[in-house]
Amino acid sequence: MDLKKEIRETVTYVIIGLVLAYAINTGLGYALDTDKPVMAVVSNSMDPTLKKGDLVVVRGVSPEDIAIGDVIVYHNPLQGVAVVHRVIDIKRDGDELIFYTKGDNNRTNRLSDQEAGIAPPIREYWVKGKVVITIPKLGWPRVILTAIF
């Protein structure tokens, strides 16, 4: 096989793979009612419940359907990233629910995210959804890419 043809085919497959991944992620986002339907766990903060490199599937939910003990994904405005942590308390501020969160790893997360200054109290519109499925180790490509870039 000629080298140019092999390179062209490889590039074509990579482009098709990227387009399919985008389409699947977008479709899942609509089906699960969230803009973050699939996420890789990129730290050990949720160990032993979630391991670094696990992939989580997230379903958008109404704030009223979130309970203490649920694992949620929220946008952290201080760090500009999505965080996967457990709800440890819920308070009301007028008509809005406010969530307090913490990672399960007590060695690295002795305090709540709010007490540690990692995140402010989580406004309901920062919540992307609840974790509904965990797929072990499937998130490692994302973890590796995050480490490189």
What does this molecule look like?
With 149 residues, this protein is α+β, with helices and mostly antiparallel strands. The protein has 2 domains: 1-32; 34-148, Umud Fragment, subunit A, CATH 2.10.109.10. It has 2 helices and 7 strands, in the order αβββββββα. Strands 1-2-7-3-4-5-6 form a 7-stranded antiparallel beta sheet. A hairpin with a 2-residue loop joins β4 and β5. It is elongated, with a radius of gyration of 18 Å. The mean pLDDT is 94.
- Rg over CA atoms: 18 Å
Q: Specify the structural class.
A: alpha+beta
CATH superfamily of the largest domain: Umud Fragment, subunit A
At CATH level 2, the architecture of the largest domain is Ribbon
Q: Order of SSEs, N→C?
A: HEEEEEEEH
CATH class of the largest domain: Mainly Beta
Give the rounded overall mean pLDDT: 94
Within the largest sheet, what's the order of strands?
1-2-7-3-4-5-6
Alpha-carbon distance between the termini? 34 Å
What are the segments in which pLDDT stays under 50 over at least 5 consecutive residues?
Answer: none
The main sheet comes to: 7 strands, antiparallel
Overall domain count: 2
Total E-strand runs: 7
Overall shape: elongated
Number of helices: 2
The CATH topology of the largest domain is Umud Fragment, subunit A
